[in-house]
Amino acid sequence: MLRPDQVHPGIGDRRVAMEDVNATPKGKKLAHPAAHAPRIFADTATIDEIMPLKEGGIINGVTTNPTLLKRAGANSWASADKIQKEIVKYMAPYPVSLELTELDPEKMFKQAKKLAAFGSNVVVKVPTGGFGMMERDPFTGLKMIRRLWQENIRTNATLIFNSTQAFWAANAGASYVSPFLGRVADYLYKHDQVERGPGNSLHYMEDHKVPSGGPNVVANTAYVANDGTRKDAGVRLINEIVSVFNNYRIHTEVLAASFRNAAQVMECLLAGADILTVPAPILMGVADHPLSDEGMKAFVEDSKTFDH
Ligand code: E4P
C-alpha cells in the first residue's frame, strides 16, 4: 500500500496551476470544496456507458483506443469515425482522446488533423514508443507530439510504462501522459511470480537472465518503481511520474490508465494522479463496500419501524 506521505508536496502548486475541475458558478456563496480535485474520465468508446456517467456528473472526459472502438462495434473506418464523432459531440466541451493508428509520420499527421477536426475538445492520442521494434524511427511518436504541439493540437502520450517516457513526452509538448498501470501489474503477475526481497535493477536483470532491450525493460522499470518489491508496481509508476512532474512543475497531466479494479482507483488518488480514466464497470462499483451495504440495510430496516 502506498503511503500518503510518499506524494511529493509540490503537487499542491501544480494542481492549483491547472484548470478547476469543479468551478463554482457565479453568484454561489458556497465555494466548491473540491475545485482542484483529480478528474475522472471514462475509458470506453461505448456511448451507452458514457451517457449515464456524464449525466450523473461523474466524468469530465473520455479516452478511447482502437480496441475499445472495436468493442463498441466498429468494424470499418467509417463506423469507427461515426462512433468517435458521436462521442466528441456528446462530451463537448470535455476532452475526448482519439488514438492515431497510422505509423508513417506524414500519414500520422494527416490522421491527427482529421481527428482534431471532429471537435475542439479532441485530444490526439499518440503512441510514445513501439516504433523501434517495427524498424521505424523510435522517436516517431515524440516527434509527432512536438509537431502537433506546434500546430496547437493537444496530445495524450499513450502506452507509457516508465517515468522517462513520461518526461520525454511532456518535454515534447504532450498535454497528458497515460501510464498503463494495469498492464504493468498484469506483466509482473504473468512473468514474476517469485517473491523476492529488496534489490536493484541490475540484480533483477541478472537474476532473471533476460536480454536487454526486451521485455525486461518493462519488468525492470516496474521493479525499480516499486523499490524492489512486486506489490503495487503500476501504482508506484504513477507516483514516480507525479513526483518527477512536481519536481519540475511540469503541467502535463498524469492520466492514470488501464485500471483493473476499484482498489487501484483509490491507490491512484493517494499516488497523486491528475486524472483517472476508468472503465465503466469499475466506475459503477467505486462507491460500493460490503460495510456500506450492511449499514444501509440496517438504516432502511430501522427507518421502516417509524411508520408503525
Ligand atoms: C487508455 O487511455 C488506455 O488506452 C486504456 O486504459 C488501456 O487499458 P487496457 O490495458 O485495459 O487495454
Describe the structure.
- The chain has 308 residues and is an alpha/beta fold.
- 47% of the residues lie in helices and 11% in strands.
- The protein is built from 14 helices and eight strands.
- It has an eight-stranded parallel β-barrel, surrounded by seven helices.
- Helix 12 links the parallel strand 7 and strand 8.
- The longest helix is centred in the N-terminal third of the chain and has 15 residues.
- It starts with 10 loop residues before the first helix and ends with a helix.
- 36% of the residues are buried.
- About 12% of the residues have low confidence.
- The site of erythose-4-phosphate has 12 residues, from helix 8.
Low-confidence stretches are 193-230
Q: What's the Cα radius of gyration?
A: 21 Å
Q: Tell me, rounded to a whole number, the average pLDDT.
A: 84
Report, as a whole number of angstroms, the end-to-end distance: 48 Å
- Indicate the overall shape: globular
For the sheet with most strands, the description reads:
8 strands, parallel, barrel
SSE topology string: HEHEHHEHEHEHEHHHHEHEHH
In percent terms, what proportion of residues is strand? 5-15%
Topology, number of strands: 8
Portion in helices: 40-55%
Ligands (ions, cofactors included): erythose-4-phosphate
Helix/strand-derived category reads: alpha/beta
Quickly count the helices.
14
Q: How do the strands of the widest beta sheet line up side by side?
A: 1-2-3-4-5-6-7-8
Note the topology.
Layout: H1 11-17, E1 39-43, H2 47-55, E2 62-63, H3 66-71, H4 77-91, E3 96-99, H5 105-116, E4 122-127, H6 140-150, E5 155-160, H7 163-172, E6 176-179, H8 181-191, H9 201-208, H10 216-225, H11 233-247, E7 253-256, H12 262-271, E8 275-278, H13 280-285, H14 290-304
Parallel strand pairs: 1-2, 1-8, 2-3, 3-4, 4-5, 5-6, 6-7, 7-8
Helix pairs in contact: 2-4, 5-6, 6-7, 7-11, 8-11, 9-10, 10-11, 11-12
